[in-house]
Amino acid sequence: MSDTLDEISCPACHKPMKKIYLVNQKFNVDICLEGCGGLFLDNRELKKIDENMEDIDPILEQIKDREFQEVDSSVKRTCPMCGHIMVKNYSSHLGKVQIDECYNCGGKFFDHGELIKLREEFATENDRINAFNSYAKSILNAANSEFKEKKTLGSMINDIIKNYKEFN
Questions:
Q1: What percent of the chain has pLDDT over 90?
Q2: Which of 93, 116, 156, 163 has the fewest CB atoms inside 10 Å of its own CB, making it the most exposed?
Q3: pTM score, two decimals?
Q4: E strands, the chain, where?
């Protein structure tokens, strides 16, 4: 979904969000300045501000020295763009930053401070990709060593399904 000039309500505290224009990236972000300090990004905007080298000074200037109300981050949130329920996901395999994502329009909502934490996880997109690839390889290597004693593919699949059900 593309950037809109329409006012939207914060998914966390339901107060009006203010549009902040990022000159270098050429798009608006929506910030809840009168409530919880949350930040909403439309589809594809995160890639343009997820690294520390990318300029977010206009955002930082707006939130500087402000107090924001606490919100319950466990409550399900509704996307302010399309009205669908947002899903909580971790920003990476590290599991440090949990954000709300809309699977319908691609919007993302960050509670106050979460964008900064996400930007601190990895210096660059390549670092993020390399870290995930290493993590995935370690999982596959562990699975290979655990299942190499199995005699059939079926018994391996049964163990994987059993472990998955126990994990979830």
A1: 61
A2: 163
A3: 0.79
A4: 18-22, 27-31, 39-41, 87-90, 98-101, 108-110
